[in-house]
Amino acid sequence: MLHLYRVRLRARALQECFAIVGIAAGVGLLFASQIASSSLSSSVGQLNSGIVGRAKLQLTARDAHGLPQKLVSEIRHLPGVRVAAPLLEVSANAKGPKGSESVELAGADGTLAELKGALVRKVALTPFAGLGAIVLPVPVASTLGVKKFGDVVKFQALGHSSESALYSRLTERQIGALISSPIAVGPLEYVQEASGLKGRVSRILVEPKPGQTAAVQAGLERIAAGRYGVESASYDEQLFAKAAAATNQSTQLFAVISALVGFLFAFNAMLLTVPQRRRLIADLRRDGYTPKAVIGVLMFDAVVLGVIACAIGLVLGDELSIHLFHSNPGYLSSAFAVGSERVVSWQSIAISVIGGMGAASVAVLSPFKDIVSRNPLAAIETKEGTGGSTSWPLTLGGLVCLGATLAILLAAPQAAIVGMVTLIAALLALLAVPLTWMLAFVKRIAPTIVSAVPHIAVMELRAGRSRAIAIAATGAIAVFGSVSIQGAHSDLLKGLYNAASDMNAATDVWVSAAGNSNLLMTSPFAPTQLSKLSALPGVRAVRVYRGGLLDYNDRRIWVIAPPLEASPLVPPTQLVEGNVAQADAHLREGGWAVVSLALAEEHKLKIGQSFTLPTTNPTMFRVAAISTNIGWAPGAIVMSADDYAKASGSTDASAYNVLMKPGVAPEQGVREIRAALGPEAALAAQTSEQHANTLRAITRQGLTRLSQIATLILVAAVMAMAAAMGAMIWQRRPRLAKLKLEGFPHRELWYTIVLESLMLLGVGCFSGAVFGLFGQQLLDRALNIVINYPVVSSVGVIVALTSLALVTASAVLMVAIPGWFAAKVQASLALQD
Amino acid sequence: MLELQDLVKHYHTAGEETVRAVDGVSMSVAAGEMVALYGPSGSGKTTLLLMVAALLAPTSGKVLVNGRDISSLSEREASHFRLQEMGFVRQNFDLLPGVSTIDNTVLKLLKNTPWKEAHVRVQPLLERLGLGGRLTHRSETLSMGERQRVMIARALSTEPKLLLADEPTGSLDTQRGREVLELLTELCRERGVAIVLVSHDPQAAAYADRVLALRDGKLVDYDPDQTLAPIGRVRGAPGDSAASA
């Protein structure tokens, strides 16, 4: 078999190389998008498990104020508890001589190491407890510019500034993949002091003795008494999964589209070798090989091709994920410690390899019917060309898929991914219809043109119909993916920009805890600077804004609590049910809140109904109106700052809303405030415009990967189509030679090739664009209804036309060059067969 | 109609050896005459045909069609010559798959003729070839004999004065081959078309007015005993009185 393969390989090395390149590109695309989709979640999961180690349960605080540390000893006395380790985690801004970085500042005592988590297993926390020293992963230490024991790191956390000495740097050898996590670990007492949370911890990790989990859980519930959460140790991962659901679903969708484009790329490439394989099948069958033996020979081909192509594809995908598809957590980093590491899971490798091997096998065995035919020469006697007819069962299937998508759009937008898959299936199944229409149309107008060009182009397309549809499908899917995702992306951005404007409408200047992770103004601090700021000459008024992140079941929701003086209290563009003025009046009364749709649906809440919010002081609210998620995927609740203070049991502020006197520009106000706070302040000032712009930029960055993948799919599709068309044309040289023999000049044949490409790619891309607009509506509705994003729905005609024109023009241009050379074929070639 | 004057085509191989593919061939074919060019593989038949079709420039000598030397035509003029003045019939059916009989036939005409007019023009020819009832049938549904007849119809669709037939019966059984040759000769005589028939099938040669033999690039005396015995009457063969008439 190997000998046979080597002999054949010599005769068709070029085609095999092209097939390898095709499959490798498909595998690479699939692998890169798989890595991108798994990296964010895996990063959070790795950091959490690196901290919690063997712990199975935890008692968690519901907000940033934490829970009393004294509960640790109470828990340690519970029967069945092996280890109970207190942990305080606060978002902090770390500054060193070279730079600054947002980190999760984690404070723990020696008991944390007993849980054997990867992060602290090799870090002895006890010896430096009294020093207030911290340990940092090497990359964070390098960013800050600290290297040796004693180097000073400044932290700004929850409105407090403090200094700490570097104890040691954690290397990759010590903590493995956690090296990319943005974390700083220090003694519990130090972190409590640095963040102003003396005697408080964020969570208490508990490792029960074997078989005692249920008993320990019951004990924890008793201690929590409804004020704190009793959760599994992996609770953070669940919260993140919910928060990142939208991003992950989008990436999954891209992975599906990438897989399809990759598969079609590979399949088109493999089709190049089909004529040779058909001849091989006929030769083998004529020489007495059984169909089983022929399949064995072909599968050997597929394995060799597949293995080489998958290896190249995995390397290519890995490079793409390093240089192009950066995991960007965007606004999620406000609530979760998301690392920058690339996580390559075995599942990503398996999916990509299965895709590549599958494409190779399907394409190699495409003449299956002929292999098992009784006629040994069936493979070379079979002609393609089914004329211009359309397969009715396929069309019917396409219409059913289209109907199913419409049903999902109207009745079950939560099944949007399924809807996108059925829409793609409909697109593929129905693609023959517009192609037939186009051929019929050209055929109808061709008689009015005295030229053989349109006639030959139509005849050629009808002759090679299967391949024509495969090529058109590549363009169709790429344009479909681009139009639907880019369209939905643009609609989502518009909605999020509106949310950012609403949030910033009630103030001129924000003063809040410093640090990039405090984008949503959720870090509390004691409002001790209120009078100092009020006394500034340019300042008209200073109001206390409150807000925070609250863990509500499996959602980390965003609580927005503007001061009563703000007007309006509710974000006007974000309401989906209810009246702005009425809701505003209710919020001012107190005891009312605006709830985002997903939360309202989850808790079956309607306007006017009451619910209890699991804050530190569980508080009952009534629903004043229902809103979007205001840009925060897990959901949001708006209430007055006074109500929030009661519910959280704290009068801490999350920000000051500073209003400037008439004629004083916000920028001038920022300068005055910065001067008043001093250079070492843990509070930062920015104009509302600056904050809105930062929010918009972070939103854009978080969604950048979607644009990058969409663009890459388009580029890959252009290359796939151009390569497939180019190869198809190159293979057709004997037929072109025959036409030349008949007297058709070079230029006329070239025009035929260009027209043929234009028709094929035009039909494919146009169909993709039309279905893409449908897909955009489906995604808009899913984002709006299911994840509850503030989407401003539109029909992205401009995006559709741009993608359509770009892909068609680029692919035709790329085809025109090999077409020119193919049309130069010597007519004498026709006499050589 | 067609006149070859001392036609020579030499090739130089990599080892600087000169291959004399066609070596001083002179011959002529009158309008309505069929000349069979008979010779074994490698005798220079295809090279000769390429030069007659203006696809290959001779090393020396002339190819005159109606007195015009076609060996000096530009590529564009040569294409025009093949399209308008010459027809080509081969053993491999160069029909477009998935395309109807009539559309396959009008292919050459469409260059300069509106589609409808082209269809009207080829219909009598197709009927004459016995394809009147198969006009809309796709090429792959036709029998081998029918496909060859479509090729003949296409070749004659532009009403050429010269037809080159390269093994036109090579893919057909004896009966079908005979039918095709009969039609070809009848049509060409009716229309005054000069035919150069290249074949090593004695049956095909039997339909020719003259048979010329080509060996090692040179015209030699035709000796049917050195080949397969021709079936039927062979005009132009040595000893045939019609040949000298």
What can be said about this structure in brief?
With 833 residues, chain A is α+β, with helices and mostly antiparallel strands. Chain A is 55% helix and 16% strand. Helix content of chain B is 31%, strand content 25%.
Description:
The complex is a heterodimer of chains A (about 850) and B (about 240). Chain A is of the alpha+beta class and about 850 residues long. Helices cover about 55% and strands about 15% of the residues of chain A. In chain A, strands 12, 13, 14, 15, 16, 17, 18, 19, 20 and 21 form a ten-stranded mixed sheet that branches. In chain A, strands 1, 3, 4, 5, 6, 7, 8, 10 and 11 form a nine-stranded mixed sheet that branches. In chain A, strand 17 and strand 18 (about 620-625) form a beta hairpin. Chain A is elongated, with a radius of gyration of 32 Å. In chain B, the strands form two sheets. Chain B has a six-stranded mixed sheet. In chain B, strands 2-1-4-5 form a four-stranded antiparallel sheet, with helices on one face. Chain B has helices at about 45-50, 75-85, 100-105, 115-130, 145-155, 175-190, 200-205, 240-245; strands at about 1-10, 20-30, 35-40, 60-65, 70, 85-90, 160-165, 195-200, 210-215, 220. In chain B, a hairpin with a 2-residue loop joins strand 4 (about 60-65) and strand 5. Chain B contains eight helices and ten strands. The longest helix of chain B has 18 residues, at about 175-190.
